[in-house]
Structures are given as structure tokens and as C-alpha cells.
Design goal:
alpha/beta; seven-stranded parallel sheet
Amino acid sequence: MNVAIRTDASVEIGTGHVMRCLTLAEELQHNGATVSFLCRKLDGNLISFINEKGFHVHSLRTPIERSYEVDRDVTHSSWLRVDWKQDAYETKKILFHTKIELLIVDHYSLDHKWESEMRTVVSKVMVIDDLADRLHDCDILLDQNEYINRNNRYKGLVPTHCTQLTSLCYVQNLEKLEES
């Protein structure tokens, strides 16, 4: 299985997204998957660190424009440092020649619009999120945090076919995915 992970780290975003994606990537690789990353060259990025961990990183260009269209539907869209359409274009250009069965996206700046664009070049989309503050177009959603309303937290934010891996339900849902 070929897996690509779209995540970033910067002085503004922090490193948590990359670190949790590395943990997942190592487990996927241990189970036979080929995993690569797509990361934007932002100040404070962890591209070299990801490479040192043994994963190939496709670097998205360093933002050169100081002005870009902020997506008013996505609270943290400014952290992307480019317009979401530009990010989608660059990502699709890299993935176009690679058969990716699963694209994992862990980025507060991206939502259903970006994820929908990826459907033309990947088989399945998985989102890692813990904000539950925007729409997603994904087949799998992972939220590892514990919430009182974990079973309804993403109601209306993900498609009805989406498998939600939420906290205590995570192990049960993962077992269902492995059976299918």
C-alpha cells in the first residue's frame, strides 16, 4: 500500500502534527506500507527530521508571496501560508504520477475543499483532526482525544460513509477496517 501524508510544521504551527504523523507512518511502514510525506518549506519545518527518520519528503515550495487569499471558512487557514487552491495544485502535481491508495492529511488549514480536490489522484482520504470546526471530505477520520460527545462530535462535518476513529471507538473501528 502506498501512503502519502500531508502535514506541516513551522514556528507558528508547532511540531505536534508531524510527530503524530511520524508515529503513524512508522506503524504503517512496519505493516508493509510505503509512506512518504508532503510538507511545505516553512520557517521551522521538520523536513530534515522526517528524512532522518527514513521517510521521503516531497517539499512544497517556500511561500514567496506575502499576500494570499485567507479562507474565511477555515479558522487557521493563514498557517498554510498559501491559498488552499495553490496547495492543492502543488500536492496533486506531486501525487499525479504515484498510485496512492491512502492520503492522510493532518493540517488545521485544510478542509473539504482541498480534500475533494485530492480525490482525483488518490483512492482514499484520511483526516487527522481534533478541532471539529470545519467540513471534511474523507473516508476515515481520526480524533484520538477523549471527548464526552465523541460519537457525535463530527456529525454533519464528515460524509455519512466516513469511518470515524474516535478515542475509545478507535480500536473497534480499526478492527472493522482491517476486516473489510
